[in-house]
C-alpha cells in the first residue's frame, strides 16, 4: 500500500504521471475513470469506446475537458506528450500510444483477450476487469507477459482478487488454507434468461445480460475458478457446494467432512449463499497448540478452524490499487499460477443444430465450474468461447456443450489463444516454450481478422 506517495515520487522523478489508457466507458469503465482522475500521480490519458461520445462524457464527468479526437496516432501521441487527453473508437489504438498501462473494462471476453494480447506485444502492461477472459486464456497471457517483460493482471476490487489477498495474508502468517470463497446474495437459478430479468435489471440500473450472469451462477463460477487458478487451489467439487451460511458459521461449515464440515479435503474454493455477501472469506487451520491458544485469546474462535472475513469488495472504486501494484511493485494483482479449474458452457434449454450460441448472460448457456482435468477429458467447451460457437449437434438441457458439438469461429483471438493454451498445457502448467520470437514481436498485422495467421504463435498449435 502507500501507493499515493510512491506514485507522486515516481511523477517527481520522471516528470509526468503514470499514463493510463482505458477500454470501455460503460458503467464499470466510467466509474473507474472517475477514480483514476482522483488518484495522485496517475492520469487517465486515453479512453477507447465504440461510442466516442460516451468516452467524452465519462472524461467530462471526471473534470477533464481538453479532449482530442483524431484517427492519426501521431496526432494523438503529440497531444498526449503535450499533456492533453484523447478518445478513440478502436481499443487497439491505445496499444500504439505513449501510455504505460492499458486497463480493459469492456466486459466482452473476445475484446479483453485481443486488448491484452495487443498490449503485451506492444510493450505495455495490461489489467483486465473482464475476468471471463482470464478463466479462458489467462494462463497463456500471463506467460506471454513474462516473456515480454510486462505485467498481465486482473484488476483489484472484484471478489476473486480480494479473496486472493486474504489467502496470501493467511499464508503469510503461517496458517493452512482450508477453504477460500465469497458470499453470493441469492440462490442459483441456472435457467434464468435476460428476458426474465428485464424489470429487475431496470430497477437496479443494470444490463439484463449482466444481471442474468449473476442470477444463473455463471459469474460466481467464473470468479471462483479464477481464484482457484491464481491461488493454486482446487474446486471443492464440480459446481461447488454453495451452502447457506453466516459469518459466524463459516468455520463450522467450510471444513473437511472428517471434522464435521462439507469439504472433501483442504485447499479448496467454494462459495456461501446468504449474508456473507458481499464479502470474501478464508477458513484456515492452526495445528500448533500455542498459535491456536493465541487466536482463541484474540477472540477469533476456539479452533482449530478459524474464519478470516472481509465484509466488502469495492469494484471500480478500489480497482485503482492495481495501478500501484503493477507500476510500482511490478506484480500482478491476480493472474493464474496454474490451471486447476475451468468454467464449462452448459445448455439452459434443449439446443438444436444451427443455433449460434449467444454467450455469457444469454438465453442459451450458463457456466459451471469444473476441474480442468475433468473438462479436458470431456472436451467441454469453455464458457468464454461460447459466443464464438455454432451448434452442429443437438445438446440436451443441463448437459455440457463439447467441442464436438460446435463449430468455432477460428478468426476470434480468444479461440486461437485457447487452442494454443490447450496445446501447451500439461498437468495444469504450461510447457516452457518460447512463445515469442523477434519476428512475432515485429509483426504489426498480428491482430487483424486473420488473427495470428502465419505467426510463430499459431505454428505452436499445429
Automatic annotation (TrEMBL):
GO terms for molecular function: NADP binding; oxidoreductase activity. It comes from the Bacteria. Residues 24-135 form the Aspartate/homoserine dehydrogenase NAD-binding domain. Residues 157-318 form the Oxidoreductase DRL-like catalytic domain. It holds the Pfam family NAD_binding_3. PANTHER family: SAF DOMAIN PROTEIN, STRU PROTEIN. This is Oxidoreductase. It comes from Cryobacterium suzukii. The lineage of its organism: Bacteria, Bacillati, Actinomycetota, Actinomycetes, Micrococcales.
